Amino acid sequence: MNPAGNMHGPPGIVRPQFATGDVAIRGGEAEGGFGRGAGLTHATHRTGHDAGVAASAGATDLVRSVAVRSAGIDCSDGDAAGRSIGRPTLGEGVAVMCHADSDLPVLGPGITTATGSSLLLTASDGAVSRAYLAEPAKSSGVGVVIFPDNRGLHPFYEQLACLLASHGHVAIAVDYFGRTAGTAPRDDSFSSREHLGKVSSETIEADLTAAIEQLRASAGPGLKSVFTIGFCFGGRQSFLAASRKFEMAGVVGFYGVLGAFPNGAPGPAQLASGFTAPVLGLFGGADQAIPAEDIAAFDEALTDAGVTHELVSYPGAPHSFFDRHLDEFTGTAQDAWSRTLAFINSHAAAA
What's the pTM? Predict the structure, then answer.
C-alpha cells in the first residue's frame, strides 16, 4: 500500500487470454489492480475470440436480441403507438422502454428494466442542447454522463445510456453542438466538421455541469456518485473530467487522444497532475491516432500524480473498436465493457 491506500506494485503487463467463444476475462487484474502504478495492460486474444459468442451474422443478431431482452429491456421495434423506441424521432420528455440497437456489440444482460427519453439541457451560459436520459427501475446510486464521439448525440449513445441504465445506473448522453446546430434530432447525414471548431473547453464544461445537475434532479438523494464515459473526442473529454473541480467518482475513456492538439490545447497527458478521479483508459493497439508512446506517457503522468488508474491496450484493435459493430472485435468490446462495469462498481462502492 502507498500512503494514500492505493494498491500498487511493479507496473507489469497482464495478458488476459481468450479461447474461441470465451468472453470471460482470464488472468485477473493488472498487478496492483486499479491502484497507483497499475500500469499498462496489453489484452491479447487468439483467432476466433473476437467473433464473440456467435459464428455467423445471423447468430450474432439472435444472441444480441436475447442478451438485451434478458436485461429487461424491451426489444420490440416500437411502442404501442408504433413509434421507434429510443431513437431521435422522439420528442422531449416522452419516456419509453429502451430496446436493442444493432450498432451495439453483444454485451450481455443487465439487472433491471430501463426507460429513456430525450430532453433539453440549459447550460450556465444559457445555451440549450438536446440530451438523452435513461433511468433504471432499480437504481444503483450511480450516475453516468456519456460524452459521444465527434458525431455528437448519435442514436448509438442513446442506446448506450439505456444499456447503462439496465445495470442500475442513471445515464445521460450529451451533445456538443446545441449552440451551433440546434436541438433537432439528427441522422447520419449530419456533418460535425463545421461545428467542432466552435466547441471549447468552456462549453463542454458547462454542458457537463448541466448534465450532472440533471442526473441529481432525476435520481434525487439516492445518487451517491457520478462517473463519465467517453469515446474518441468524448474519450478525451472524459479523461479531462478527472480534474479535481468536477469531483468525479471515476472516469472512463475509450480511445481518447492523449496529447496536445495542434492548436496547443493541452491534453490528458499534460494535465494529469491536476487529476484526482480514478481513470480507466481503453485503447486499440492498432489505433494510429494514439501511438503506444502516448499511452505510456499518460501512464507515467498518472503514476507520478498518484492517480488510481488502469490503461488497457488491445493488440490489433482499431480506433472505434467499441462504438461501431465490428464482428471481428466483439470479444474486445466485451472485455472493455466488463472492465468498465467492474471499474464503476469498484469505485462507486468507495465513493
Answer: 0.75
